[in-house]
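Hi team,

Filling in the usual template for the complex we talked about on Friday. All components are listed, including any nucleic acid strands or ligand strings, so the model treats them as one assembly.

SUBMITTER: L.P.
PURPOSE: interface mapping
COMPONENTS: two
RESIDUES: 361
SEQUENCES:
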Amino acid sequence: MNSYGSRPAPTASTFELVAWLFMRLSGVLLLILALGHLVIMHLINDIGKINYEFVAGRWSGELGMLWRGYDWLMLILAMLHGVNGMRTILEDYLSPGRRRILVLTVLYVVSFAFLAAGSYVVFSFRRVM
Amino acid sequence: MKVELKIQRFDPVKDQEPHFETYAVDCEPTDRVLDALLQVKGLMDGTLTLRKSCAHGVCGSDGMRINGRNRLACKELIQSQEQPIVVEPMKGFKIVKDLVVDMEPFFEKFRAVKPYLINEDPPPAKERLQSEKQREKFEDATKCILCACCTTSCPTFWADSEFLGPAALVAAQRFIFDSRDQAKEERLDIVGEKEGAWKCRTIFNCTDACPRDIEVTKAIGEIKKEELFRKL
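RESULT (copied from the run log):
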């Protein structure tokens, strides 16, 4: 039998491994997506041109689903990347107990609400003329 | 030269909280911080308590915080330090007295990774052979002297005392990558946990602190990589 001294026996959970990998991959993807966003919104197009019509037109045109997908991917990755970073910091610096559970719960609820609202807007948007 | 030392003092019998006391000593610029501390203890205040043994950077007894960085007092020259030289015990452990901390939690974590060769095969007549290339994979980690400078320089460890810490992870790396060892999986199970290698935030304080110049963060990174390819 294995003995682990006073430390808990390994859980074989891969959650932290997957979270670690996700941070690396989403970080690289976000760099590409956000730079692309910056180039399109601020370099190719003048910010004076960017208004409701611009965004609505992009989301409703032939490539509408592509742009919606682009924006949605950025939303999902940025939210999950940020929330996981916050989870990491909070779990590092708040000792286990009621306060940590409370703060993490607030974090998860608020971020879920943002994700849900954002996803709803991205996919249910109809252009109003 | 005149050297001003600002030393953190704590006597559990008298004091509620640690406090600083200042001492002026005469030293050569090429003396070590340890020499200055021993001068204080020998000639000015015999109650100053610190650990030291070999005094030559081999035993790892006199790890402490010198001007905000974890160092061995016997390896730090006076001339390379700004004055006053602030000397504190290593952070993250209970202070026993002055510069002496309770290292037991540190050794407990070290033991948790099974820091010894596990090989069930009967030992050969002479020795278990290994190529130079196989040895290179863990050579760096063999230099560890268990001074705890790395672990007690880690902000994640300060905040979370359950974290295995850099030193224990280096010890694990040393055997995980040893071709003669047969308990790789078992060790990866132990360190591939939330409070193990995945708690490392690559802050690099450990690499800066190591008096043996072990690339600690790199060693932990190798564990992460090994664990990643084992599980995915």
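MY TAKE: The first helix of chain B runs from residue 33 to 44. Helices of chain B lie at 33-44, 104-112, 132-139, 155-159, 166-176, 184-191, 205-209, 216-231.

Thanks, L.
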